Amino acid sequence: MPNLKKPTLDKDLDKLSYMEEAAGSLGRGLIAPGIALVFIVLCALGAGASMSGAPGTVIIVAAAAIGAYMALNIGANDVANNVGPAVGSRAMTLLTALIIAAVFESAGALIAGGDVVSTISKGIIDPASVADANVFMAAMMAALVSSALWINLATWIGAPVSTTHSIVGGVMGAGIAAAGFSAVNWATMGGIAASWVISPFLGGLVAAGFLAFIKTFIIYQDDKIAAARKWVPVLIGVMSGTFASYLALKGLKKIVHIDMPMSLLLGVVVGLAVWAIVRPLIRRQSEGLENRNQSLRILFSVPLVCSAALLSFAHGANDVANAVGPLAAIVHTAELGDVAAKVSIPLWVMAVGAFGISFGLLLFGPRLIEMVGQQITKLNPMRAYCVSLSAAITVIVASGFGLPVSSTHIAVGAVFGVGFFREWYTERSKRRLDFVNQKQGNGNVVRPVRNREEQARRHLVRRAHFMTIVAAWVVTVPAAAVLSAGLYFVMVKLIA
């Protein structure tokens, strides 16, 4: 009988191999947090070097470290909405998306980022109620820490949340702790609360509307390629014009001031020009393509890549200032000793926000990108196009009506809208059923599903993710506020 026992040396070598594999796996998991920690330390050291000898240097160094941590979390969570649909539809790879988003986020922040920011975060707190410099700095630091911690938790559970709402909740909680409930502008807070519903609803409605148009006039046509040659240039022109207006209105405020009518006129001009340019290109690209849906996806891929880059640029230009606003306020107050309603953002502070977001995206962003692009509902280039276009259109419409909407809620709401519309359209659309039955040609007739269990099995939106994300949206402001209020009492003692 053969000896099945391993020699002692082999056993010991196996144990060492297992230990090496375990150590390697653990080490790989610590690489990203290690790089993030190095970035935070470098930001703190850089702030100390640039502010050496200035009043309140210690506070500024601490605030820079907190601001860097905040920026990393924004990159890990918020930027997924810009590139997630393009990745989920396989218009570009995850690595390409990370590089494009990182470059354009940084460019948007540094080139077109706002140079003046409201330190009380959109008028939530009465400046007179926190006029004492120490109280104000403690409130801003508490707001930064609480919003960063909340975004970190949301990223961990896989829920894309609004950065602006997190900061709003942090400022509100610290303001209440410092000066009481009377310090809060409740009318402004009411508008922000309304945006919880308005943002995703508008985003979903616009995205579903464009998907219905694509299905009706392109997908369910006998000659899909001929329909695509007619309508795809129009859709690309609409996207180009919309993004031109979006960037002019929201992304280039620092470079040039453009009002709503001028931005819309610019969008019309750009849209018509792009439509005229891409018509022959789409005709040439569609030559030889088979008359099926897979061929249509090729025509939407390049516009999706462009939209991801433009959304990232606009996000960097528009949202980074909000993220580093409390940090800029702390720097101003520590240096000059006075509380101002608006302050200029130093270049190094903007750099902390821009590069922090890029590092956060590269190190921790893939998880949320996959969530938005693949796990909520299945996306292809046509559906992802609807999501990206909806994000830009909804922001423009909301800005025209003065509604405080969240780009995160709009983009994710658009993904939900596309998924829920497909559920309805698959079961209820007579046009789709007639088209499918016409193509069957074998005598079998496809009918709507009546069985509830079968309908539940065919859900195209994962309900678990839907409930998790909506719950995170609802509790973002109150959770950040409660956490900030508690942190304020710790911060005020440390600063005093």
UniProtKB/TrEMBL annotation:
GO cellular component, one term: membrane
GO MF terms held by the record: phosphate transmembrane transporter activity
UniProt membrane topology term: Multi-pass membrane protein
Domain of life: Bacteria
Spans traversing the lipid bilayer: 25-47, 53-72, 93-113, 133-155, 167-187, 193-219, 231-249, 255-278, 298-317, 345-364, 384-403, 409-425, 466-491
Localization: Membrane
Keyword terms of this UniProt record: Membrane, Phosphate transport, Transmembrane, Transmembrane helix, Transport
Pfam family, one: PHO4
GO biological process, one term: phosphate ion transmembrane transport
Family in the record: Belongs to the inorganic phosphate transporter (PiT) (TC 2.A.20) family.
UniProt name for this protein: Phosphate transporter
Annotated source species: Roseibium aggregatum
Phylogenetic lineage: Bacteria, Pseudomonadati, Pseudomonadota, Alphaproteobacteria, Hyphomicrobiales
